[in-house]
Write a structure and sequence with these properties.
CATH class of the largest domain: Alpha Beta
Number of helices: 8
Strand content: 25-35%
Distance between the termini: 49 Å
Number of strands: 14
Mean pLDDT: 90
Structural class: alpha/beta
CATH topology of the largest domain: Rossmann fold
Number of domains: 2
Length: about 280
């Protein structure tokens, strides 16, 4: 049985978006938000005193009053029970809603996405998932082949197929995410239409595609533009990216332009932005 470390952080709520952006540079498995407090979950084997000191200093650069309040050791069963209690139904649009399996009878929509998140990203609670899902509703077309880069719970690959894509390819570099995504593909009846592998975006060779969804942090998106372009150019495909803070927009767009992409749409929620590009 794996053990996990819940690290509770005191930080001003108005700084949450910046703090979450910092946390995504670390090997976190999940984040829970409360009033003026974030709780990040790590594998106990990966959380070290050196990481604690480094993280705290990074957070103090955002909020000088930031503090690590506690570090709680949990096993797999206890972590899941605590996390699952707090998962709401997320309405993306009039047609799309994301929900855990135990709440699937509480809502009626055309496109229900059933997600049991375990310890992976993609419950729809965060702005980045909601934003990119809204763009997908506009850009995914019937019969297409889509790639989900950094699939997490598998929510975006599932959505692509339920919006009409014929096939999807999903990957993540986290073993737990691969297990979780596979379970969610089964729950949504789409396993036969998705190829799922464990891989790192820096090393993977992407197949030719009609579209790519990448809910990743800004640096990883910028570094991956050449790889995304090579996958999309033959079909003049669409690239949808999320996980971008408003402070990083100009750098991300400039990098996209330098790699032969053209910005076609930009949407925002709070301090987060999702961008749609097409190949020039």
């Amino acid at each position: 049985m794996k053990n996990f470390k819940n690290v509770s952080i005191s930080i001003s709520e108005e700084k949450f978006d910046l703090a979450i952006a910092v946390l995504t540079d670390y090997p976190i498995l999940g984040i829970q938000e409360e009033t003026d407090k974030l709780t990040a979950t790590f594998l106990d084997s990966e959380w070290t005193s050196e990481m604690s000191m480094e993280l705290l200093q990074s957070l103090k650069n955002i909020d000088k009053n930031a503090q690590i309040l506690s570090e709680e050791l949990l096993n797999t069963q206890n972590w899941n029970e605590e996390f699952e209690r707090n998962i709401p139904i997320i309405n993306i649009s009039n047609r799309i809603a994301i929900m855990p399996e135990w709440k699937k009878f509480e809502v009626s929509v055309d496109i229900p996405i059933i997600i049991n998140p375990k310890m992976s990203f993609g419950t729809g609670q965060h702005e980045t998932t909601r934003l990119i899902a809204k763009l997908m509703e506009k850009y995914v077309q019937p019969g297409q082949f889509w790639i989900d880069a950094g699939t997490g719970t598998g929510v975006l690959a599932i959505l692509a197929l339920k919006l009409g894509a014929a096939r999807a390819f999903a990957f993540d570099n986290n073993e737990w995410s691969i297990e979780n995504a596979s379970e969610n593909f089964d729950l949504n009846g789409v396993s036969d239409s998705i190829d799922l592998i464990e891989a790192d975006i820096e090393n993977i060779t992407l197949p030719k595609s009609d579209g790519i969804v990448a809910n990743l942090y800004a640096n990883l998106v910028r570094n991956s533009f050449p790889k995304f372009y090579n996958s999309l150019v033959a079909k003049n495909g669409v690239l949808l990216v999320s996980g971008i803070l408003i402070y990083d927009i100009e750098e991300v767009i400039q990098s996209a332009i330098e790699n032969n992409f053209e910005l076609i749409e930009q949407i925002q929620e709070s301090e987060w932005v999702s961008l749609a590009f097409k190949c020039k």
